[in-house]
Design goal:
about 280 residues, alpha/beta, Conserved hypothetical protein from pyrococcus furiosus pfu- 392566-001, ParB domain, 3 domains, five-stranded mixed β-sheet, extended
Length: about 280
């Protein structure tokens, strides 16, 4: 491994990088830090056959350098094959607290494939292969390293079978992981039909609804009408409600009022309102 300073134009994105580079508050902080102190931690890269370097770890730092107007960045050039590069890429980001379900899904899938490919070679003596040869599956290796369960590893990987708009619903916390995993077994057109219903009816499937659709899909009995009928059923815990944000109500009450006090006042006011319109009805 060697450290050097390279022109930022020599750096190239890692193909199929599962992690997104986001313009958010953390990125702004990173840009300001680089402007003031420079890049404290060098990027990890590997040589490209076509020239330049492929980023293995440091996509966010490279983007921040561009925004900060830097033309040169420090890098550590490591000699590694594609499988080891994938493992390093995944591991360097997987412990982030803000990682999205979709990022975790594709990262697990990439690392699982890389470890399996490593295990097919006899000239590798890495930690991963050692574990594999001692009887652990690739998924068990990832589970041990992440503190997750093997089952959960595979559940996340199932998310990669979702069409992009449905996967985005998971990232946006609009669809829970458990129903999303079941929905991933639907055929592509069935997923598109489901998405159309979700958008038109402003609803997402419950776990039980997702399981029913998965089973009907397996039987080739899931069409648009069936999806619509399932999705428009009234769920026991989703009867029609009117919701208010507490922040929007606080301005109408004395400072320090609790939520319970506000609820009591609103309920009393509604009772008075009901009495008034009933009196008007009787007076007609």
């Amino acid at each position: 491994m060697s450290e050097k300073i390279v022109n930022i134009n020599e750096l190239h994105e890692f193909k199929d990088n599962p992690y997104q580079v986001k313009d958010n508050e953390d990125m702004e902080d990173l840009i300001e830090s680089i402007k003031e102190y420079g890049v404290i931690e060098p990027l990890i890269v590997r040589n490209r056959e076509k020239g330049g370097y492929e980023i293995v770890s440091g996509h966010r730092r490279k983007y921040a350098c561009e925004k900060a107007g830097k033309t040169e960045v420090p890098v550590l050039v490591r000699d590694m094959d594609k499988n080891m590069a994938i493992i390093t890429l995944v591991d360097s980001n997987l412990q982030r607290s803000d990682i999205l379900p979709s990022e975790k899904a594709f990262a697990y899938k990439m690392k699982l494939g890389a470890i399996k490919h490593q295990g097919k070679r006899n000239d590798l003596t890495s930690f991963q292969v050692g574990n594999k040869l001692s009887g652990k599956t690739s998924a068990e290796i990832i589970a041990d390293e992440t503190g997750n369960s093997k089952t959960n590893i595979y559940r996340y990987i199932r998310l990669t079978e979702l069409i992009k708009p449905l996967l985005q619903l998971v990232d946006d916390n609009k669809m829970a992981l458990s129903p999303a995993v079941e929905i991933s077994y639907l055929k592509e057109q069935e997923q598109k039909d489901l998405l159309e219903t979700i958008e038109s009816e402003d609803c997402t499937p419950s776990y039980s609804q997702a399981i029913r659709m998965k089973e009907l899909s397996r039987q080739n009995k899931l069409d648009m009408d069936t999806i619509f009928n399932i999705m428009t059923e009234q769920k026991p815990n989703q009867k029609e409600q009117i919701k208010f944000k507490v922040e929007n109500l606080k301005g109408y009450f004395p400072k320090g009022y609790s939520t319970k006090q506000m609820e009591d006042v609103i309920e009393n006011l509604l009772k008075q309102y009901k009495q008034r319109w009933k009196s008007r009805e009787l007076g007609r």
